[in-house]
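Narrative summary of target 7.
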Amino acid sequence: MQITDFSLLFPTGHDMSHTPHISPETIEQLELDLLFQLKNSSLEEFFTTSPEVIAYRQDVFADMESCPEIAETLTKVVPVLYDIEELRKLASSATSQGSNTESYLFSLTEIELYTSCMSILHKGLSPCRDRVKSAAFRALIERVIELTESDYYKDLNEKLNALTQRVRDIKSVTVGVNLDAQLRPVYAGVLSINSKPFRSGEVIDKILRLNFKSDEYTCIAQLSPFIKGQSENQQYATTHAFYAAINDVFKGSVHSWRKLVSEYVLDNTDFLLGLLPEVEFVVKSSRIIAALRKRGIKLCHPDVRPVEEQALTFHELANPVVALRIDDEIVTNDLDFDDNAGIYILTGPNRGGKSVITCALGQAVAFCMLGLPVPAESAVISPCDGIFAHFPTGSEDTIDKGRLGEECARLEEIFDSATKYSLVLLDESLSSTGSYEAAYIASEVLTGFAVLGCHVLFSTHLHELAAQVDRINEESAARGGIKVDNLVAGIADGKRSFRILRQSPDGKSYAHDIAEKYNLSLSQIMEKLGGKIENKT
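Modeled conformation, tokenized:
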């Protein structure tokens, strides 16, 4: 039985048209690349907008949580698959150089690795047979058990053991050389292939072995130095001659058996190699889930709604990247995109949690679209057809009007690709210009997104922008758009609470916080000038 037409992440016959637009740049800005650290694939390959696919994966991750042996088993399989990949490269090189014997040996090793892989899967997964509930693991376990317990598989192992034992036992060859009347070699050939290595006939070696007898495995005279001191061409010629001789000995048995195996085993090996990116993804994801649970973060399977509903609500949402990075208490927040707010302007003090909640929103939606549980107590999510992030880069995070064109160009690219079913995350956008120009451009941008009808969270230091909500809503309503509302990063008793509140700013300026961000508050300046002032006096 072949293990084909199977996926850990997609149900049979899934529709590939449900692939959203989430660029590597957005993945990087949301720090998802650091969270997953995939080596064999790109995270954007696994996003989906299909509720059916999301439900399929939710069952997969639920099984991995309830049966930790699954993740342990898949983790053990990954290095074996890496070895098969590397072996394939070596075998391809050997074949291109015409080395049939080396190619045969590589094939035997690949089959050994394949049977080892299947044994790992059988030993680790079969005990979970009656506990798994997902269609993916039920199918995989049944196929692994059926295959490894079949008569063909047992026969395969017996033949493999016999042949590999025969090959591994080769320790030396006996070479016969015919000489002419002048004692010059005229013909040479392999007389036998031996399971014992030859021994040196030198006296010192006999003394060390305490065995002075000579037999058919003791050299009576050494030929010219073998390999050592030879040129590359001489080495190749010598090695090729021995490979050719061994190839003639094994040609019949290995060649016929290899053909039989290639029709069955190598197809399954190809399948397992093709499954490697999915295996890596689910293993890494299960580790993230386990780490978040250990950290005390609440996780839930969201209520997944159709894309067209544009549902987006979270209760006690947490930022998973921050949660795994710091030891402090994690503050959770509620977010509700409803009929009165499809777009939010988030203002508040610097380092008050604006960027954290902005990233958390994108990360939670991404988790949902990957099929993972979401870091919240509860959530209702419609998958979006794209996530677009406009965060400051190192060069933009300055008060430098020369960067304005670059920021605006990136915003224009979002308008080129986004639809009403997209999620747009703006964090301190337009910070590279003055507040008047920035507030004006930002209000135009938000009005455009409101008319488009997509969900937007814009965290900003532009408190002037928050005061323009009514005007933006009037412009949007006149064009049939959605509503904009305010969020505020709260302060309690003069301290940042990191709570995000749905209310209008109180009009207080956070200029002091901005000054502190750039080390330009009066207290910071006086500290810097302390020594100079003392010297002056």
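The first strand starts at residue 172 and ends at 179.
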